[in-house]
UniProtKB/TrEMBL annotation, chains A, B, C, D:
NCBIfam families (alphabetical): Gln_ase, PRK00971.1-1, PRK00971.1-2
Name of the gene encoding the protein in the UniProt record: glsA
Enzyme's top EC category: hydrolase
Catalytic activity field: L-glutamine + H2O = L-glutamate + NH4(+)
Record carries keyword Mitochondrion: no
Superkingdom to which the source organism belongs: Bacteria
Gene3D superfamilies: DD-peptidase/beta-lactamase superfamily
The name this protein goes by in its record: Glutaminase
Keyword annotations of the record: Acetylation, Hydrolase
One annotated GO biological process: glutamate biosynthetic process
Length: 303, 303, 303, 303
């Protein structure tokens, strides 16, 4: 199959969906994005990239950053993080406190906000500058040295962070933060404010399709660690729609409220999509449809 | 790799785990099983079977039957079942009523008891004799015409079915059962009481590794339906430990309180394990360890 | 103050509310009641009765029966029932299973359905015929030998009892029923189907205002037991609006979905009201307003 | 009855309970209190006071301050606070976030921490110095000008306030705080750190037994407002044991983790007790026992 043609077809077929769904509006910087944009990129394990649509427009990766933060913690600190965060789907909204309360301050998984705060906290302990560490990883893997956090997004997130601040203090009340709440929140917000394009994102995620090998061939993660991140993405990567995503798309994936999603075909490639309109579960409406079409037409699926 | 040698190795390595964990004891027929048994079988898509340990001892498949019931409903009735049951992990125990109440009587997935009752109800509507339909499927796929429900287990389950009866009436109170509660419960209990060996089970599940093709080559399910069952197994197949199972084993799987588990390597093979001692989440302790070793040593994993 | 004038005033002032709210419609017998009816009665401890409006029209007392069943269990069996049911407000709907699950099958209080089933179960063990026992109590205290269960209501309730059947099996699954589920449900439904007028109800409840003394002067309950029933009524008697009822009315009270409420001024009198239209929490809209006016104008309140 | 003799009797009878239960230990200032102390005071509506035991030892009133803060908000701002906080029992721990999440940031009642933060927020808006306003009220009503906040307790609470900070940000995330989170928390913590003796407390609460009249005869609250505070105390004043407290004691009351409780006999008197050892629900073990004995022997009860 000709991948470029396929991506162009997909761009055409999702046009009726563009502008549908809800654009995240809790901060003005996200609300003001043109909702009719759509981009898609595929990065082969070998390094080839195919892109179509608005694949070179940078967008706010938001929760997708959680995958890279987790990878860095596992790379530098090993499996000890799993004592502080579970690996199970939550069955509750991503910013819920309910389960956290009944499970004594141990978040259900590293991709709900509470779990990502724990990971950010550990990355802060290990690196001193977690957002910079994530940024450097993204720059090196994508080969794009201009990837950076959007300062306006970060500043605005901090002004609208009551829920995450509440989560962080809640974690702290159970003794599950090592650093001061304010520092953890700042690191977390900066990490989420990183902006990059579909092309950047597909390239940056290649290690997930390459048994943990970085772009330069050196290992970031072991094969086993890589498989395990993919497993967590599949069961927990798309909010309370992980079952639906596995059912429709059949690949490990991680979404963000900015409208991006990165998906992984283990051993083969990564696929990134972006379109700001979100479906009811907070995942990009056109993005999920595009991935559905991609896997249906290529036959690529882990199942 | 020599599969037979590998299975023999695994039988040796799980010996220290046998007798650990808790054997299901809510009915005497399960409680009285010798806890130190362990069996494992691998059925290749081509039909070859490898077995070791107590792989020919029949055991009560219990919740594993839910996969076969779901396959039959999809085969005969298509996707309409998904209007009556979701496909998301629950984050709660398999027999919980909490989420059912907050989600208006739509069970989270077809593998928690509430969802399996809805599937059994639909199979009853479609076939008239759901337990027989499941039994016939198992007999034909395994080639073992002696597979049958254990009448003592079924009778005993009915005497200890207050929780499932409660679930069924709860579903009925939301209008989510088509048949009388008593008939649905009887069908469900008989289906769960089916007994078969690891070898039978690995053979019977082959269609999940064969894009839906039955042992005789005819299609039971479409390729897409098969992938989707595997996706639901991965996200929801092992009670509230689906994330952990995906993380450790990396394959779609479905477990039962009788201590059996069936796992699927799409396009390749099915693996079945059985050992009665259950871990905290209700999955066979030695069984999960065996599958972990199997995937680690073969490198077979979907991630 | 002239009580008769006051009651007549109240009947006049609630007219604008009649027909508002929702009439219980889960069974046709309740749904077909003329929603514009309103009755009020006051029974002095001494035996005098004042009535106005539709005070002599019999209505289905439904959950109000729970008070009399509880009184009989305490009278005949003492405090042991409190091992099987708590005395705390639930913070959840009257027919919820959530809290029951997290608290191991011990209902929060005797006035939510689960708790009332436990009381009915115990009354069945103690008397053999719990609905008859409640009926005899009501007849003797009110002096009206024609009080009886409405057979159509009882039959219809049984046909629409999936939720209560679910609750009963749930209790049974925790070992918190002594009798077969079917017998407990039948007793409970018959007890709830008892029909009587406001005048009957005010008279029948007098023992709650008389330190436990029956109409004939003999003790039904001790002073302490009586106070305690009143305490449970105040904190748990009006579904999830007990706080609001205490705030507005300031008296112990028990409501039913038939639109009746009985309230108690300890040492003084009982007041009963009836109007079928229910507010959001399931309590009679005009009934609560009438009690509010009664306590405001008389200054009678326990606070 | 001779009240002084009765109080002396009660002091004697609770001796075996002193030292039982758990002293609050989340801050060192509370943990270090001598657990074997017990005091009791009764203040008649007329102004007479009877005391026994350690009735003149100041203790940290903690949550009891919530009653006085609520009284001040109602006195100065009327009923508008009820748009921001409900009046229903919660059925959950005092510092739980669960119900707050399912009810969109409206706390269940003004006596759980979330509700008290909303009240403190409003008092801050109305007075500018809420802790001072509460302190002045307590000083004037008790006639003790030395009542003050314990600065060490306040400072220590702030250092251990992650849970309350989490609650406050959670409220803010729903738009249910008017002032900055930090200012609300500081006001709240200072108010809870007020220290006073049983004698002070009984005197200070007299307006609750006097239809809202202050010690100098001027009105603080209307009769109706006073009754309503008493109603909220009865249904919500003693954490998740309000039903048990109503059942055993039969009076409106408010407890604090410092081991104090104030109870009200409307129109008659207030009773205050103090002993640091707490029962499972967080109410003073000896304090509840003493109030139980007091109401049993005097026959004073609202039921």
């Amino acid at each position: 199959m000709d991948i470029q043609n396929l991506l162009d077809d997909i761009v055409a077929s999702v046009q009726p969906l563009l502008g549908q769904g809800e654009v995240a509006d809790y901060i003005p910087q996200l609300a003001s994005v043109n909702a009719k944009q759509f981009g898609i990129s595929v990065a082969m394990r070998s390094g080839e990239v195919y892109s179509s649509g608005d694949a070179d427009v940078p967008f706010s990766i938001q929760s997708i950053s959680k995958v890279f933060a987790l990878a860095l913690v596992l790379a530098r600190d090993g499996d000890s993080i799993w004592k502080r965060v579970f690996r199970e789907p939550s069955g509750n909204p991503f910013n819920s406190l309910v389960q956290l309360e009944s499970e004594d301050g141990i978040p259900r998984n590293p991709f709900i906000n509470a779990g990502a705060l724990v990971v950010a906290d550990r990355l802060l302990s290990v690196t001193g500058h977690p957002a910079s560490a994530v940024r450097e990883l993204l720059r090196q893997e994508s080969g794009n040295p201009r990837i950076d956090a959007d300062a306006d997004v970060a500043a605005s997130e901090l002004l609208h962070s009551h829920r995450n601040t509440s989560l962080a203090h809640f974690l702290a009340s159970y003794g599950n933060l090592e650093n001061p709440v304010e520092e953890v929140l700042e690191a977390y917000v900066k990490q989420c404010a990183l902006a990059m394009s579909c092309t950047d994102l597909a390239l940056a995620g290649r290690f997930l399709a390459a048994n943990g090998a970085r772009a330069d061939g050196t290992p970031l993660l072991s094969r086993s660690q890589t498989k395990r991140i993919n497993a967590v993405m599949l069961t927990c990567g798309t909010y309370d729609a992980a079952g639906e995503f596995a059912y429709r798309v059949g690949l490990p994936g991680k979404s963000g409220v900015g409208g991006g999603i990165v998906a992984v075909v283990p051993e083969h490639c990564t696929i990134s999509v972006w379109s700001p309109g979100l479906g009811r579960s907070g995942n990009s409406l056109a993005g999920v449809a595009a991935l559905d079409e991609f896997t249906t037409r290529t036959g690529l699926s882990i199942f």
